[in-house]
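Dear Dr. H.,

I hope your travels went smoothly. While you were away I took the liberty of generating a structure for the chain from your last submission, since the lab meeting agenda had it listed for discussion. I wanted you to have the full record in hand beforehand rather than looking at slides cold. The sequence, exactly as received, is reproduced here:
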Amino acid sequence: MVTQGSGRAAEVRDVVAAQMPGYDIHSVVLLGEGEDNIAFQVNDELIVRFSKEPDPASRAAVVRDEARLLAAVADVSPVPVPEPSFTVAEQGCLAYFKLPGLPLIDADPARRSGHGGSVAVALGEFLGALHAVPVAEMAGLVETDDAPMAVWAEESAQIYASISQVVVPPAHRPAVEAFLGAPPPAAPRELVFSHNDLGIEHVLVDPDAWTVTGVIDWSDAAITDPARDFGLLYRDLGPEALDRALSGYRADVEDITARAGFYARCGVLEDMAYGLQTGHREYLDKSLAALEWLFPAEGG
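The corresponding predicted structure, in token form, is as follows:
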């Protein structure tokens, strides 16, 4: 198992050499490390990721399940998703070639705003394809995420209390507090299979053509509320993008829209806290911009 830190290049080289004989390895760099995984990039093209799950059996199961999930998603998704090149389950290792494109969160905000509608149409079609997959087919690959709306509201109130005086501009605080004081929407009538974390950090685009070139990071995929991912598109790309994403969606759009707004508002507070805590300024910047449509100032 590869453990914490960046001094593991030799272990990564050994794994890749064993699984891909003849593949020349020129460079191995630490790509990132989170609570669940540590990832390396080989030759600027191959992502090699290791689970940090300490239990060997659980670690192997996580990798096998994710590989099966990515294969299943690739069969139905209209946009590219990572496809495993190899797995070494006992080491918690999964490798795949990097998809082309720029993470949408790294795009120039003005250009992102100008092209958000066309991106949203593609992502709406993508979500429609996922949500159409029979839940029974995916239930063995992902968990169910159906936390009550009241729990979302309670957690958002706790987040707001910790950040309100630090990063939430005073002009927006009354709207946030009114939202947190209102009853949450009713629970969804049915659940669907979805990405469950479709923020713009997980959407890749061609920065010239503004086409969607991939959707990454499927670690939170679940059987969940169909409004969840639409809410994240609303949060990150705005109300017009939400309308465009829903334009071809075959479901009760009015029902989806009401809960999408709720998830968007909860999500922007979460992202503000994340940006503040980690120093990832891009999360804070996009969240501050989103306050204009999610929590407009009085008279604004």
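Two observations you may find useful: The mean pLDDT is 94. The chain is about 45% helix and 15% strand.

With kind regards,
E. W.
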